[in-house]
Structure formats: structure tokens, C-alpha cells
Design goal:
3 domains; four-stranded parallel β-sheet; single chain; alpha/beta; cell membrane; P-loop_NTPase; ABC transporter transmembrane region fold; Rossmann fold; ABC transporter ATP-binding protein
Length: about 525
């Protein structure tokens, strides 16, 4: 709820319009019950001439339908339009906040979480706010106003009626609140299992080619069935609790309605209430039941929505593993000298990958990191990019400790060509231009020519405006690699990292691109 409150604060005027409109609508609805009382009292009054009765009834009807209904319609429209603006903007703000937070998390965070699960958590956060806002505005707030209004009317007619309803409402709210709190743990468990099943499903579909190659459709179906089976069990449990709660609620309503009617009959028999009072009592009780009937479900929906949002809220409350120092400065790279000084690092406390390593790469020098798998070659590169913080030692670029500069300014000076290139589901032009967002079309084409990908791009029906598909699946591995190299050429940063950048190229294309790479590496500090 704190996350939601934080995002509601920038919209005080809109929230105020919604609040006042809800109050006005609820009060006008109860005013209708008071006019019904006057109507019945007028009908049953034998002491008034027929002409006066008819005139009074017409006046009441005009006031009721012309004034009360008209105002109610107007405030409903204020409420509706204000709510549209309110919810869509806050949902947008929540998703932006969630994305901004995710972008700040470390590389390790994303290796430990399913992408599909993270996407679902972002969407759930905004949808949870929509559900909570709808239920608070459309149910809880009108219910609170209706309870106050009904109690005021009953106390006005006779204090005994007011006390009976007050005791019942207090007991009802306390009971349902406790039930909701007790059920919350199952809602949280269900939301977590739902995210898990989504992650498993996303993992299966992402690796569909591998599944077909190894004929593992049956295995994956069994894996997903096991996960969804747990989710089904939790759904059955929570829904059963909800149904039992609804039955209890209906029974409590029958009891209070009977009690108030019996007391009202006694008061009428004593001459303390009129027929109009009966109409008033029954109408306001029905209005209260209409509001309160959904109370249990509303509370459950709110807690279920909060449970759905809890996954993303937990991430929002998780400190970023790698953060800029409060006094971080922007990195300025002139020559591109790289130094590792007594650097220790390990992904686990019990196993070190780098142990007091020291390394100096002179400006413009080309260095190849050679070693067996797991020797730490990729780790050196990831530490230079500051994907992880080191427990001891220093990494310097032109004498600047990378821990003391902003992460963005550090990475703006390093071009990285990975072994497994992944592209955005955008056009080829946009993917290449990602290296330099303000690059002209001519610069994009020039970079593509140097990377030897201009010819195959030009042969496509839409050329540079061709969409490459999710992760670039519409291109071959070699084509994706050349597009990534073109991006690095366009970026033209002082430090270059090539992680087996030609591994996906055939011998003919590799020989063509070596010249472009040599041109790219000129006057740059390069790690291969």
C-alpha cells in the first residue's frame, strides 16, 4: 500500500474530485430513502384533503427525480471521468517505476530470475492498483458513507434501532477483517505459485527448439503439470474459503434484518414509528445490504491484489546489488589505460574465481584473454563493465576507480560484442542505431558496410526497416553477429571488448569482417 500511496500523492486534485463525488453520490442515494418515507407518510395520512396530498406527491416526485437523480447523475460523471484520468496515469507511473527499478538491478539478479516472471510482476503491480482503486472507490468508501448515513437515520428515528445496527456492523467488519488476514497467507502463496508457473511456461516456450530436438515434450508437460497442480490446489482452497465466507455473510444479513424488523414492529405498535418509517428503514437496510454484500469479496479482492503486487513490491524494496556511490562522478576516458590491482572475486564465498589478480593494459593495446572454460575470462570482462562489485582490490581506467564513477558513464566508454548476440524486436536500423541514438541514416549504413552486413540487409524486402523478431530470431547467427558488430562500430567507444565476436561467422564472412574489426580496433584499447 505504501507504494500505491506514494504514486497517488502527485494527483491530489483528481483524488479530491473523486472523493467528493463519491460522498455526494452516496448522500443523494440515501436522500432518496428519506423522500420515500415522506411519500408513504403522505399516502397514509387520512387527515389531509386529497388535493393537498396530490399536490404534495407531485412536488416530492419532481424533487426526487429532477433534483436528486439529476445531481446523482452529474456527480457520477465527475467521478467516472476523474477516475479514468487518475487510474491510467498512476498505472503508467507504477510500470515506469518498476522498469526503472529493474534496470538498476545487477546482472546477477537477472540470471537468478525468469524474464517472464519479472514481466508478469510488473503488469501485476499496475493491475493490482487498478483493482484496489476500483474496489476502494466503488465499494469501501461508498459503504463507509452508507453505514454512517444509515446509522444516523436509524438513531434519528429511534436509538434502539441505531444501537442494534451499530453493534452488528462492528462485529461484521471485525469478523471479516480477521478472516481476510487469515486468508492472506494463502493468497500470497497462490500469487507466488502463479508467478512460478508463468516462469516455467515462459522457460518452456523460450527453449522450444531444444525441447523438440531432444523429444522432451512429455517431460516438459509433466514439469508444467506439477507446477500448475500446486496452483490449482491453492486456488481451490482460497475459492472454497471465499464461498464459505459468502454463506456466513448471507446468514448474518438475515439475522440483522429480522431483528430490526421485529423491533420496528414493536415501536410502530407503540405509535413511535409510522408506515413511512418502515419504508425508510427497509430501503436503507436494503441499500446497506447492497453495499455490504460485496464487502467480503471486496476485502478478498483487495488482499488478493496486494498479494499479486507483493512480488514486484518485494523487488522494489530489495537494494540494488551494484549502486552508484552518492558522490560518483562521470568517467572521462582519454587514453583508455586499464588496470586491475589485486582484485579478488567469487560468485560464492567458498570459491574464488579471481585471487589477487593484477593486470595492466596499456592505451591502445590489444590483449587476448586465453584460458580453459571457467578460468575467469568472462568474469574479468564483466567486472570491467561493473556488472558486479569486487570485495577487494581496484579496477582503474585512466587512473579512475570504476567504483567511484557512475555506471552509465563507465559503460558509455566501452563497446561490447558478445559471443551470443541478442537483438531487440525492432528494425535493423534501430538495432544498429542503438550504439549511437542520434546517428544519421548515412552513419548507420556506413557502419553496416564496415561490418559486412549491408548486402544482406539490402536484399531484404524492407531493407533496414525489417523487423528482426524476438531476440533477432529472423536472422541467422552470423547475421545477428554482424549487426551487433555494426552497432559497436557506430558507437566508436575508446574501449572495445570482443567476446569471440566472429564465432558465429562462417570462414568466408569471417575473413571479410577481420579487416573491419582491425579498422575498428585502431587507437582503441581492446580485449579479446
Amino acid at each position: 500500500m505504501l507504494v500505491f500511496k506514494k504514486h497517488v500523492r502527485p494527483y491530489p486534485k483528481t483524488a479530491g474530485i473523486i472523493f467528493l463525488s463519491i460522498i455526494a453520490v452516496s448522500v443523494l442515494e440515501m436522500a432518496g430513502a428519506w423522500y420515500s418515507k415522506k411519500l408513504f407518510d403522505m399516502f397514509t395520512n387520512q387527515n389531509l384533503p386529497r388535493e393537498i396530498v396530490i399536490t404534495s406527491l407531485v412536488a416530492i416526485a419532481i424533487a426526487f427525480y429532477g433534483y436528486i437523480k439529476g445531481l446523482g447523475w452529474m456527480f457520477h460523471r465527475f467521478w467516472g471521468f476523474a477516475n479514468i484520468y487518475f487510474e491510467v496515469h498512476i498505472m503508467k507511473d507504477l510500470e515506469i517505476t518498476a522498469l526503472e527499478n529493474l534496470l538498476g538491478h545487477s546482472y546477477r539478479f537477472f540470471t537468478n530470475n525468469f524474464t517472464g516472471s519479472l514481466v508478469r510482476k510488473v503488469r501485476r503491480l499496475s493491475r493490482a492498483f487498478e483493482d484496489v482503486a476500483d474496489n476502494v472507490e466503488g465499494n469501501l468508501l461508498p459503504l463507509a458513507i452508507t453505514i454512517v448515513g444509515v446509522l444516523a437515520m436509524l438513531f434519528h428515528r429511534h436509538f434502539v434501532l441505531g444501537i442494534i445496527l451499530l453493534v452488528w456492523v462492528g462485529g461484521f467488519v471485525i469478523l471479516y477483517y480477521r478472516i481476510a488476514i487469515w486468508k492472506l497467507k494463502y493468497d500470497l502463496e497462490k500469487a507466488e505459485k502463479d508467478s512460478e508457473s508463468t516462469g516455467v511456461l515462459s522457460d518452456i516456450l523460450t527453449n522450444i527448439v531444444t525441447i523438440k530436438l531432444f523429444a522432451r515434450s512429455g517431460y516438459e508437460k509433466e514439469r508444467f503439470t506439477k507446477t500448475i497442480g500446486e496452483l490449482t490446489r491453492l486456488r481451490f482452497k482460497t475459492w472454497t474459503i471465499s464461498t464459505v465466507t459468502d454463506a456466513l455473510q448471507g446468514l448474518l444479513m438475515i439475522i440483522i434484518n429480522a431483528a430490526i424488523v421485529l423491533v420496528a414492529l414493536r415501536l410502530w405498535n407503540e405509535g413511535r414509528l409510522t408506515i413511512g418509517d418502515f419504508a425508510l428503514i427497509e430501503e436503507v437496510i436494503l441499500a446497506l445490504f447492497h453495499r455490504i454484500w460485496d464487502f467480503g469479496r471486496v476485502v478478498r479482492r483487495i488482499y488478493e491484489s496486494l498479494a499479486d503486487a507483493s512480488g514486484m513490491v518485494e523487488i522494489l524494496n530489495t537494494p540494488h546489488e551494484v549502486e552508484d556511490h552518492p558522490d560518483a562522478t562521470s568517467m572521462r576516458v582519454g587514453e583508455g589505460k586499464i588496470e586491475f590491482k589485486h582484485v579478488d572475486f567469487g560468485f560464492h564465498d567458498t570459491k574464488k574465481i579471481l585471487d589477487a589478480i593484477s593486470l595492466t593494459i596499456a592505451p591502445g593495446e590489444k590483449v587476448a584473454l586465453v584460458g580453459s572454460s571457467g578460468a575467469g575470462k568472462t568474469t574479468v570482462v564483466s567486472l570491467l563493465e561493473r556488472f558486479h562489485d569486487i570485495p577487494s582490490g581496484e579496477i582503474l581506467i585512466d587512473g579512475q576507480n570504476i567504483a567511484g564513477v557512475t555506471q552509465d558513464s563507465l559503460r558509455q566508454n566501452i563497446s561490447f560484442v558478445p559471443q551470443e548476440p541478442i537483438l531487440f524486436h525492432q528494425t535493423l536500423k534501430e538495432n544498429i542505431r542503438y550504439g549511437k541514438l542520434d546517428a544519421a541514416d548515412e552513419e548507420v549504413v556506413e557502419a553496416a558496410q564496415k561490418a559486412r552486413c549491408h548486402d544482406f540487409i539490402s536484399s531484404l524486402p524492407c531493407g533496414y526497416d525489417t523487423f528482426v523478431g524476438e531476440r533477432g530470431v529472423k536472422l541467422s547467427g552470423g547475421e545477428r553477429q554482424r549487426v551487433v558488430i555494426a552497432r559497436a562500430i557506430l558507437a566508436n567507444k575508446p574501449i572495445l571488448i570482443l567476446d569471440e565476436a566472429t564465432s558465429s561467422l562462417d570462414s568466408e564472412v569471417e575473413s571479410l569482417i577481420q579487416e573491419a574489426l582491425r579498422e575498428l580496433m585502431k587507437s582503441k584499447t581492446t580485449i579479446v
